[in-house]
Amino acid sequence: MKHTHHRPTTRALTLSGLAVAALALGACGSADHGSDHGSLPGMGAAPSASATAGTQAGTQTGTDATSAHNDADATFASMMIPHHEQAVTMSEMAAKSASSADVTQLASQIGAAQGPEIETMRGWLTAWDVLPTDDSEMNGMTNSDGSTATGHEGHDMGSDGSMGDMPGMMSADEMTALGRAAGTDFDRMWLEMMVKHHEGAVEMARTETTDGQNADATALAQQIITSQTAEITRMKALLTRVG
After folding, report:
1. What is the pTM of this model?
2. 151-167: pLDDT as tens digits
3. What is the per-residue burial (b if ≥16 Cβ within 10 Å, else e) of 151-160?
Protein backbone atom coordinates (compact mmCIF):
# COMPACT_ATOMS: atom_id res chain seq x y z
CA MET A 1 0.00 0.00 0.00
CA LYS A 2 2.86 2.31 0.81
CA HIS A 3 4.54 1.51 -2.49
CA THR A 4 1.29 2.01 -4.34
CA HIS A 5 0.86 5.39 -2.65
CA HIS A 6 4.42 6.47 -3.52
CA ARG A 7 4.05 5.82 -7.27
CA PRO A 8 1.16 8.27 -7.90
CA THR A 9 2.94 10.90 -5.86
CA THR A 10 6.06 10.59 -8.01
CA ARG A 11 3.97 10.76 -11.17
CA ALA A 12 2.12 13.79 -9.89
CA LEU A 13 5.35 15.51 -9.02
CA THR A 14 6.71 14.71 -12.44
CA LEU A 15 3.63 16.07 -14.15
CA SER A 16 3.71 19.13 -11.93
CA GLY A 17 7.31 19.72 -12.87
CA LEU A 18 6.52 19.45 -16.53
CA ALA A 19 3.66 21.87 -16.14
CA VAL A 20 5.90 24.36 -14.36
CA ALA A 21 8.51 23.99 -17.06
CA ALA A 22 5.90 24.49 -19.74
CA LEU A 23 4.63 27.58 -18.01
CA ALA A 24 8.16 28.91 -17.70
CA LEU A 25 8.82 28.32 -21.36
CA GLY A 26 5.52 29.94 -22.24
CA ALA A 27 6.39 32.94 -20.13
CA CYS A 28 9.75 33.27 -21.85
CA GLY A 29 8.06 32.94 -25.22
CA SER A 30 5.54 35.58 -24.28
CA ALA A 31 8.28 37.87 -23.06
CA ASP A 32 10.24 37.39 -26.26
CA HIS A 33 7.10 37.85 -28.33
CA GLY A 34 6.17 40.94 -26.38
CA SER A 35 9.67 42.24 -26.86
CA ASP A 36 9.33 41.73 -30.59
CA HIS A 37 6.04 43.61 -30.64
CA GLY A 38 7.52 46.30 -28.50
CA SER A 39 10.31 46.81 -30.99
CA LEU A 40 8.01 46.99 -34.01
CA PRO A 41 6.28 50.21 -33.00
CA GLY A 42 9.67 51.72 -32.37
CA MET A 43 10.90 50.61 -35.75
CA GLY A 44 7.73 51.84 -37.38
CA ALA A 45 7.83 55.14 -35.51
CA ALA A 46 11.26 56.08 -36.81
CA PRO A 47 10.29 55.96 -40.51
CA SER A 48 7.05 57.74 -39.66
CA ALA A 49 8.94 60.56 -38.01
CA SER A 50 11.32 60.73 -40.96
CA ALA A 51 8.41 60.77 -43.38
CA THR A 52 6.81 63.57 -41.39
CA ALA A 53 10.04 65.53 -41.38
CA GLY A 54 10.42 64.88 -45.09
CA THR A 55 6.90 66.07 -45.73
CA GLN A 56 7.51 69.20 -43.70
CA ALA A 57 10.76 69.81 -45.54
CA GLY A 58 9.02 69.25 -48.85
CA THR A 59 6.27 71.66 -47.89
CA GLN A 60 8.78 74.25 -46.82
CA THR A 61 10.77 73.76 -50.01
CA GLY A 62 7.60 74.19 -52.05
CA THR A 63 6.77 77.37 -50.15
CA ASP A 64 10.28 78.70 -50.68
CA ALA A 65 10.09 77.85 -54.36
CA THR A 66 6.81 79.71 -54.71
CA SER A 67 8.08 82.74 -52.82
CA ALA A 68 11.53 82.81 -54.38
CA HIS A 69 11.97 85.94 -56.43
CA ASN A 70 14.52 88.51 -57.49
CA ASP A 71 14.43 92.24 -58.14
CA ALA A 72 13.26 91.70 -61.73
CA ASP A 73 10.19 89.82 -60.48
CA ALA A 74 9.38 92.53 -57.94
CA THR A 75 9.85 95.26 -60.53
CA PHE A 76 7.68 93.43 -63.06
CA ALA A 77 4.77 93.03 -60.65
CA SER A 78 5.11 96.47 -59.09
CA MET A 79 5.12 98.22 -62.46
CA MET A 80 2.66 95.99 -64.28
CA ILE A 81 -0.03 96.60 -61.65
CA PRO A 82 -0.48 100.34 -62.43
CA HIS A 83 0.05 99.54 -66.11
CA HIS A 84 -2.85 97.09 -66.01
CA GLU A 85 -4.94 99.48 -63.93
CA GLN A 86 -4.68 102.10 -66.66
CA ALA A 87 -5.73 99.55 -69.27
CA VAL A 88 -8.78 98.68 -67.15
CA THR A 89 -9.63 102.39 -66.88
CA MET A 90 -9.35 102.78 -70.65
CA SER A 91 -11.58 99.74 -71.11
CA GLU A 92 -14.22 101.29 -68.88
CA MET A 93 -14.03 104.48 -70.94
CA ALA A 94 -14.61 102.46 -74.11
CA ALA A 95 -17.70 100.85 -72.62
CA LYS A 96 -19.19 104.34 -72.29
CA SER A 97 -17.84 106.17 -75.33
CA ALA A 98 -16.93 103.74 -78.13
CA SER A 99 -19.12 103.74 -81.22
CA SER A 100 -17.77 100.47 -82.60
CA ALA A 101 -19.15 97.22 -81.22
CA ASP A 102 -15.80 95.59 -81.99
CA VAL A 103 -13.98 98.15 -79.85
CA THR A 104 -16.47 97.73 -77.03
CA GLN A 105 -16.13 93.95 -77.14
CA LEU A 106 -12.33 94.08 -77.18
CA ALA A 107 -12.27 96.58 -74.34
CA SER A 108 -14.48 94.29 -72.26
CA GLN A 109 -12.16 91.38 -73.00
CA ILE A 110 -9.11 93.36 -71.93
CA GLY A 111 -10.70 94.52 -68.69
CA ALA A 112 -11.89 91.02 -67.81
CA ALA A 113 -8.41 89.58 -68.32
CA GLN A 114 -6.32 92.24 -66.63
CA GLY A 115 -8.46 92.76 -63.53
CA PRO A 116 -7.70 89.30 -62.09
CA GLU A 117 -4.04 89.61 -63.10
CA ILE A 118 -3.79 92.75 -60.98
CA GLU A 119 -5.02 90.83 -57.94
CA THR A 120 -2.61 87.99 -58.66
CA MET A 121 0.37 90.34 -58.80
CA ARG A 122 -0.72 92.14 -55.63
CA GLY A 123 -0.74 88.75 -53.93
CA TRP A 124 2.82 88.14 -55.06
CA LEU A 125 4.04 91.45 -53.67
CA THR A 126 2.40 90.64 -50.35
CA ALA A 127 3.97 87.17 -50.28
CA TRP A 128 7.35 88.62 -51.20
CA ASP A 129 7.03 91.31 -48.53
CA VAL A 130 7.50 94.01 -51.17
CA LEU A 131 5.41 97.17 -51.26
CA PRO A 132 4.97 99.09 -54.53
CA THR A 133 5.98 102.72 -54.21
CA ASP A 134 3.96 105.74 -55.28
CA ASP A 135 4.16 107.44 -58.67
CA SER A 136 7.22 109.48 -57.78
CA GLU A 137 9.31 106.43 -56.89
CA MET A 138 8.46 103.92 -59.59
CA ASN A 139 12.15 103.30 -60.27
CA GLY A 140 12.25 100.94 -57.29
CA MET A 141 10.29 99.23 -54.54
CA THR A 142 10.33 99.64 -50.79
CA ASN A 143 10.37 96.58 -48.57
CA SER A 144 8.27 96.53 -45.41
CA ASP A 145 11.42 96.96 -43.32
CA GLY A 146 12.17 100.24 -45.07
CA SER A 147 15.00 98.92 -47.25
CA THR A 148 14.92 99.51 -50.98
CA ALA A 149 14.59 96.80 -53.61
CA THR A 150 16.24 98.29 -56.68
CA GLY A 151 14.12 98.34 -59.80
CA HIS A 152 15.26 96.88 -63.10
CA GLU A 153 17.04 99.38 -65.34
CA GLY A 154 15.58 97.85 -68.47
CA HIS A 155 12.27 99.65 -67.99
CA ASP A 156 13.68 102.97 -69.19
CA MET A 157 12.23 105.01 -66.34
CA GLY A 158 12.60 108.77 -66.44
CA SER A 159 14.87 110.63 -64.03
CA ASP A 160 11.84 111.61 -61.95
CA GLY A 161 10.55 108.02 -61.95
CA SER A 162 7.13 109.10 -63.21
CA MET A 163 4.74 106.48 -64.52
CA GLY A 164 4.36 108.46 -67.72
CA ASP A 165 7.79 107.16 -68.72
CA MET A 166 6.81 103.53 -68.18
CA PRO A 167 6.70 101.66 -71.51
CA GLY A 168 3.32 102.22 -73.13
CA MET A 169 1.91 104.21 -70.21
CA MET A 170 -0.42 107.05 -71.22
CA SER A 171 0.21 110.50 -69.80
CA ALA A 172 -2.44 112.42 -67.87
CA ASP A 173 -2.93 114.70 -70.89
CA GLU A 174 -3.49 111.74 -73.20
CA MET A 175 -6.06 110.24 -70.83
CA THR A 176 -7.84 113.60 -70.62
CA ALA A 177 -7.93 113.88 -74.41
CA LEU A 178 -9.34 110.36 -74.67
CA GLY A 179 -12.03 111.21 -72.17
CA ARG A 180 -13.13 114.16 -74.27
CA ALA A 181 -13.28 112.23 -77.55
CA ALA A 182 -16.47 110.71 -78.93
CA GLY A 183 -17.69 108.54 -81.79
CA THR A 184 -15.19 107.32 -84.34
CA ASP A 185 -12.64 109.81 -83.03
CA PHE A 186 -12.76 108.01 -79.70
CA ASP A 187 -12.50 104.61 -81.40
CA ARG A 188 -9.43 105.63 -83.37
CA MET A 189 -7.74 107.30 -80.42
CA TRP A 190 -8.52 104.39 -78.10
CA LEU A 191 -7.15 101.82 -80.53
CA GLU A 192 -3.97 103.79 -81.18
CA MET A 193 -3.38 104.33 -77.48
CA MET A 194 -4.14 100.74 -76.53
CA VAL A 195 -1.78 99.42 -79.20
CA LYS A 196 0.97 101.56 -77.68
CA HIS A 197 -0.08 100.47 -74.21
CA HIS A 198 0.03 96.78 -75.13
CA GLU A 199 3.40 97.15 -76.84
CA GLY A 200 4.77 98.58 -73.61
CA ALA A 201 3.35 95.68 -71.61
CA VAL A 202 4.91 93.18 -74.01
CA GLU A 203 8.26 94.94 -73.65
CA MET A 204 8.08 94.73 -69.86
CA ALA A 205 6.95 91.10 -70.01
CA ARG A 206 9.87 90.14 -72.25
CA THR A 207 12.27 91.66 -69.74
CA GLU A 208 10.65 89.52 -67.03
CA THR A 209 10.94 86.29 -69.04
CA THR A 210 14.64 87.02 -69.50
CA ASP A 211 15.58 88.31 -66.06
CA GLY A 212 12.88 86.99 -63.71
CA GLN A 213 13.32 84.12 -61.28
CA ASN A 214 9.82 83.36 -60.00
CA ALA A 215 8.12 80.68 -62.11
CA ASP A 216 4.62 82.11 -61.66
CA ALA A 217 5.75 85.61 -62.60
CA THR A 218 7.61 84.49 -65.71
CA ALA A 219 4.61 82.36 -66.71
CA LEU A 220 2.29 85.36 -66.44
CA ALA A 221 4.77 87.43 -68.41
CA GLN A 222 4.72 84.86 -71.21
CA GLN A 223 0.93 84.83 -71.11
CA ILE A 224 0.90 88.62 -71.44
CA ILE A 225 3.24 88.42 -74.44
CA THR A 226 1.03 85.86 -76.16
CA SER A 227 -2.38 87.41 -75.46
CA GLN A 228 -1.47 91.05 -75.93
CA THR A 229 0.51 90.43 -79.11
CA ALA A 230 -2.64 88.84 -80.55
CA GLU A 231 -4.71 91.80 -79.37
CA ILE A 232 -2.27 94.23 -80.97
CA THR A 233 -2.78 92.47 -84.30
CA ARG A 234 -6.54 92.64 -83.83
CA MET A 235 -6.49 96.36 -82.95
CA LYS A 236 -4.32 97.24 -85.92
CA ALA A 237 -6.85 95.47 -88.15
CA LEU A 238 -9.69 97.44 -86.52
CA LEU A 239 -7.82 100.69 -87.15
CA THR A 240 -7.98 100.07 -90.89
CA ARG A 241 -11.77 99.95 -90.66
CA VAL A 242 -12.32 102.98 -88.45
CA GLY A 243 -13.65 105.89 -90.55
Report:
1. 0.64
2. 433 334 333 334 556 89
3. bbebbebeee
